[in-house]
Design brief:
2 copies of one chain form a homodimer.
Chain A (H helix, E strand, L loop, with lengths): L1 H22 L8 E6 L4 E9 L4 E13 L4 H4 L9 E13 L6 E12 L6 E11 L5 H16 L5 H12 L1 E2 L4 E2 L3 E8 L4 H26 L6 H20 L2 H8 L4 H4 L6 E3 L11 H8 L10
Antiparallel strand pairs in A: 1-2, 2-3, 3-4, 4-5, 5-6, 6-9, 7-8
Helix pairs in contact in A: 1-5, 3-4, 3-5
């Protein structure tokens, strides 16, 4: 329980740090808070900023759910976890900026712990961060991946390439043959190192998010754009919805296990368009996204 | 094969009839057609009307896919169908009107056939239609269900109640504890009657769709509305997206089995909003929808 308290303390501080940093880009709106309880154990603190100048919607959620019985969907593939005491805690965020030149960002760090009598306890860490540009700048993507690599640096030279590839594989829309964006890091079931080292990795990933994202926000948030750019942004946001509802394990697990719907679905963009059979004109800036960014690519020299 | 040709002829005529009837509500736009081929057998004819005065988007799709090997996702739960020759054909439509007083409508009729050497052949019919109002009128819903009941009349007194209930059960968003709309009919795996009778039922359901929907369109399409009604419509369309991507078997099967993505996802509305933790004011017309319409209810006296 001491470990869980330490992780919880870190996560709540991370949530605060991120919300404060994002608010510096807003003149008139702030994050609003909803504390919620899970009837069968635990709860969370959802923080959402809506209708900002810079951020059309940003959600930064903490949750810590626990109980003496794992939700059924979670044990379907892991029957050994049935009838375990469990704790699942994490911070998850999705930021939908207003300006189409600022990419959407997602980050998550989480910890899972389970035990039952006469069995060794089970735990793992998971998380990562990934970026979804509409009108990408190569500089932004390279720097984003540089920070992702920096976050992994102290943990071995193979960590960034492994979790970068996992991210490309995970955030992939099979029915579109597109990656969701330009990736970053994704990891799950992490317990190959001792607990302290894993916890340090969680902190390194969490702490690198703002370093990686905010310079891009700062650099692009005042770019001039018009209706064309806005429409493309709204169209591409449709892909974000498709990914989150069709493929994202966290979303499905959350909804199936009776998580708080509004906190889970804050990941969905505030305004979205679908257009039947649309594709960008060859050679246009919109086509550039598809051709050079929505396929896995090595962004930094290692 | 003769059966399949007869069904195909009916389906293509139904698609024509419905498209022509919908076009009567438009002054300047028409359905556009895309014929597509499935690399491993069959194809379809997708017809989409976009940016109409009455219909913001309407898709009426015919498809007939076949082959000598069932797509893997389809045989996961039915291993007896592995290595079968199969045919799957149907018409599927989703209509997103512009005016928030006109409900969204969905209809589908389909037929499945499979055989392999030394085994009896397998076939069934499926389909139905259901209505999703934003600002419902009781008269519209009652009449809609009356037509649904009429479609079933000649097939026995228990048919409407059974398929009405199946529709309520199927179009249900568990994570919202809401039905998608006010229902109608849903049936699947239908082969309890002889083939001819089942085919007649398909035709009865198909032919009743326009009768049930167009009077509502006619009655409400010129209702005055403002920004408030439009915003509520866009917000509620989010539920439509959530249902189709999280729960709809046809969507998931289609995408997983390599169907044509753009034809499958024409069901998604052209413009959609999500708003964190929004709920209607008690006593408002928007609250009326939740309180009296998004729960299963008996609409007609039988």
């Amino acid at each position: 329980m001491e470990d869980i308290e330490r992780i919880k303390t870190y996560l709540l501080r991370l949530q605060n740090t991120i919300c404060s940093a994002l608010e510096l880009h807003e003149t008139s709106v702030k994050f609003e808070e909803d504390a919620w309880q899970r009837p069968t154990g635990g709860g969370g603190l959802t923080r959402v900023l809506a209708d900002g100048d810079t951020f059309e919607q940003a959600g930064v959620n903490f949750s810590h759910v626990f109980g003496d019985k794992m939700p059924a969907p979670a044990t379907a593939l892991r029957p050994e976890l049935e009838n375990c005491n469990f704790h699942a805690l994490g911070v998850s965020l999705v930021i939908h900026p207003r300006n189409p030149y600022v990419p959407t960002a997602h980050a998550n760090v989480r910890y899972f712990f389970a035990e039952k009598q006469n069995h060794p306890s089970v735990w793992w860490f998971g998380g990562g961060f990934d970026l979804t540009p509409y009108y990408p700048f190569e500089q932004d993507v390279v720097e984003w991946h540089q920070y992702a690599s920096d976050a992994c640096q102290a943990f071995g030279p193979d960590v960034y390439p492994r979790y970068k590839k996992w991210c490309d594989d995970y955030f992939y829309l099979k029915h579109r043959d597109e990656t969701r964006g330009v990736g970053g890091l994704f990891y799950d079931d992490l317990n190959i190192w001792e607990f302290e080292r894993c916890f340090e990795f969680m902190q390194s990933v969490g702490n690198h998010f703002c370093k990686a994202y905010l310079p891009i926000v700062q650099r692009r948030k005042n770019n001039t754009y018009g209706q064309r750019q806005r429409e493309f942004q709204l169209y591409r946001r449709g892909r974000y919805v498709e990914f989150n509802l069709l493929y994202d394990r966290g979303t499905m697990f959350g909804l199936q296990s009776g998580g708080r719907t509004e906190s889970i679905l804050m990941s969905l963009p505030p305004v979205v368009n679908w257009r039947y059979h649309w594709s960008p004109e060859p050679g246009s800036p919109e086509a550039e996204l598809y051709e050079n960014y929505l396929k896995p690519r090595e962004w930094i020299n290692r």
